[in-house]
């Protein structure tokens, strides 16, 4: 079983403690997604206590069992020792589930499943939310509640048949909309969420295929904003605007700085969120397909999926405000196309999206999560 995750420091100095999801097997939804129950629950008001249901109930974390000495065999056993989850559907968000990063939570974007896995398994579905997985929509990202051990809540950014929205998933797979009406498009739905504190959730949204909406103050497309997820009808506070598609947040766990990778109208780019607005750190005019980012050990790593590589830049500091030249790591043969990334300790977990990127090697078609140490050769700031 799993141990609590370590404390993370928010950019405002508060500590957010995330604990591992306990074992709760939930069957995934089948057929067309039906959001009537969600919308009805939205009108019903705040959550009341969730009644106990039959079957296994969440339990406190226990001491992990020893690793097996003889690895199992089968089609879902990856020979790469860094791989901790395989045989996945197209992935969305990914989060570490233990301090060493040997266990992972990963979203299957098109099925709406949130899965917990470690190397050699077993894999368990810990929650499922109905989604519209057409285009680049679906279960886009998720976060455990900062007080998960007490409330057992999971928050997610999802696509429905009519919009993108923030939902809260309670024990028993009870799904309640928190913020609805985020614009949806055939593309440009991929966004990102992360907690600043128990009362502040950061949300980054894609432009839903409409670059004009990203600069429209009346639209939540192409924006970075915060909400209080504990309220029934939270009012978004806009922090930044003008984002394109595939927007990924990457907070620095050491300094509290916040970086954002996205594909903008003029090319792919990495920006830093500052009190006065956004500061461009690097842009990729050839649009290689920025799909995720993470910060570990003072290095910002950015996944560029269609180029099958991970680019690394030194995180800027007050003394050296430039990010310097990216250093590229070719991951085509080992992992193929990498999508979302997340940080634990001094390393990262990366989730692949080979099922949706053409040209990926045949050996990488089973989407996976792997531990990635990053590039130690990122050029010094200049």
TrEMBL record:
Region (Disordered): 32-79
InterPro entries associated with the record: 6-blade_b-propeller_TolB-like (IPR011042), Glc/Sorbosone_DH (IPR012938)
SUPFAM superfamilies assigned to the protein according to its UniProt record, in alphabetical order: Calcium-dependent phosphotriesterase
Residue ranges annotated for the Glucose/Sorbosone dehydrogenase domain, each copy included: 103-276
Recorded superkingdom: Bacteria
Pfam family for this entry, one: GSDH
This protein's name: Glucose/Sorbosone dehydrogenase domain-containing protein
Organism: Gordonia hirsuta DSM 44140 = NBRC 16056
């Amino acid at each position: 079983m799993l141990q609590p995750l370590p404390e993370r420091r928010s950019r405002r100095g508060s500590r957010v403690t995330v604990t591992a999801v306990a074992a709760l097997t939930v069957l995934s939804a089948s057929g067309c997604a039906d959001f009537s129950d969600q919308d009805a629950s939205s009108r019903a008001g705040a959550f009341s206590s969730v009644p106990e249901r039959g079957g296994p109930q969440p339990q406190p974390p226990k001491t992990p069992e020893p690793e097996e000495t003889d690895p199992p065999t089968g089609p879902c056993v990856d020979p790469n020792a860094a791989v901790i989850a395989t045989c996945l559907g197209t992935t969305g968000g990914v989060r570490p589930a233990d301090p060493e990063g040997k266990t992972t939570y990963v979203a299957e974007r098109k099925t709406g499943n949130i899965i917990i896995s470690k190397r050699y398994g077993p894999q368990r579905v810990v929650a499922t939310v109905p989604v519209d997985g057409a285009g680049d929509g679906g279960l886009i990202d998720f976060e455990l509640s900062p007080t998960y051990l007490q409330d057992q809540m999971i928050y997610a950014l999802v696509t429905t048949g009519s919009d993108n929205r923030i939902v809260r998933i309670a024990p028993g797979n009870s799904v309640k909309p928190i913020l609805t009406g985020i614009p949806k498009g055939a593309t440009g739905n991929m966004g990102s969420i992360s907690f600043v504190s128990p009362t502040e959730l950061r949300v980054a949204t894609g432009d839903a295929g409409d670059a004009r909406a990203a600069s429209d103050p009346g639209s939540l497309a192409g924006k970075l904003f915060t909400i209080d997820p504990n309220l029934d009808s939270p009012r978004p506070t806009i922090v930044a605007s003008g984002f394109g598609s595939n927007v990924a947040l990457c907070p620095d766990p050491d300094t509290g700085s916040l970086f954002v990778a996205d594909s903008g109208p003029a090319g792919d780019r990495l920006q830093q969120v500052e009190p006065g607005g956004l500061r461009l750190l690097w842009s990729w005019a050839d649009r290689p397909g920025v799909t995720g980012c993470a910060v570990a050990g003072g290095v910002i790593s950015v996944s560029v999926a269609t180029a099958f590589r991970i680019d690394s830049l030194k995180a800027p500091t007050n003394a050296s405000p430039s990010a310097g030249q990216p250093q590229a790591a070719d991951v085509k043969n080992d992992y193929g196309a990498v999508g979302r990334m997340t940080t634990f300790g001094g390393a990262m977990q990366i989730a692949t999206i080979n099922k949706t990127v053409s040209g990926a090697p045949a050996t990488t078609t089973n989407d996976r999560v792997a531990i990635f140490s990053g590039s130690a050769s990122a050029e010094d700031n200049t």
